[in-house]
Specification:
With 116 residues, the protein is mainly α. The chain is built from five helices and no strands.
Length: 116
């Protein structure tokens, strides 16, 4: 069976890069916020000052990061780097088979983007 070539999307069908960039910025802010909480938690754990309140804050801090990741995922990828990010998120979330399929697709994206 011969595979058909898929024509590129016309420019109007390509995602709004601004929406992607805004969602990516929101994700970075959440990751930075989470990193601060994580550092405070690790320091408190190391010096024996960990409180239940900080433990709860630390435990809850990953939720907004996940929400920001999936909000970004919901936006159509404006380029191959965005598509690679989406595939990596799926792989890291355990949503792709663990038999190397995701790695092959990610490698293809990198090749098409001129990075391989």
């Amino acid at each position: 069976m011969m595979l058909q070539t898929i024509a590129p999307c016309p420019p109007k069908a390509v995602s709004d890069r601004t929406a992607w960039e805004e969602a990516a910025a929101a994700l970075r802010r959440e990751q930075e916020r989470d990193a601060v909480i994580n550092a405070r938690y690790k320091q408190a754990e190391a010096d024996g000052t960990l409180t239940d309140q900080l433990g709860e804050e630390w435990s809850d801090s990953i939720g907004p990061v996940g929400q920001a990741e999936w909000a970004l995922f919901a936006i159509p990828a404006p380029d191959l780097a965005a598509l690679e990010w989406k595939l990596t998120l799926l792989r890291n979330s355990g949503m792709l088979d663990d038999d190397g399929q995701a790695e092959r697709v990610i490698a293809d994206v990198r090749l098409l983007a001129g990075e391989a």
